[in-house]
Specification:
Elements lengths: L10 H11 L2 H8 L5 H13 L6 H23 L10 H25 L2 H13 L1
Helix pairs in contact: 3-4, 4-5
């Protein structure tokens, strides 16, 4: 049994936590705040509906640990290492992967959202001039 956090999280408990965490509403609330006790109280209440008895502190601790582990695996992968991995990486990547990538690629996305004829027309003009 883990010390401070009570009993270890089972795979199903972690899956349920990730499922709740993947809720866009929860994500937006978590992104916008540091004082998040109220949000994790909601998360704990939703876990109860799945029959999982965790308090908000346990949920927050697990969330922080998963996020930390994800980030360390992600940065290892980005630097070319494949030795690091974790159990719920793909699920977390679906949630967290977009956060960091979205900000980095906002300018790229702008280009791809334009109708193709805009970029073509622009290049024709350039070649005329």
């Amino acid at each position: 049994v883990a010390n401070e956090g009570g009993k270890h999280w089972t795979v199903n408990e972690v899956r349920a936590l990730i499922r709740i965490w993947s809720d866009k509403n929860i994500q937006q609330q978590l992104e916008g705040t540091v004082r998040n006790k109220r949000i994790f109280e909601q998360v704990a209440a939703r876990l109860q509906k799945f029959g999982i008895d965790r308090d908000w502190k346990q949920c927050r601790t697990k969330y922080k640990n998963l996020k930390h582990e994800y980030k360390s695996v992600k940065s290892a992968q980005d630097s070319g290492s494949t030795s690091k991995s974790m159990k719920f990486f793909n699920e977390l990547d679906a949630i967290l992967g977009h956060c960091t990538m979205e900000q980095a690629s906002k300018s790229d996305n702008y280009e791809s959202e334009r109708p193709p004829e805009w970029t073509e027309a622009k290049s024709e003009k350039d070649s005329i001039g």
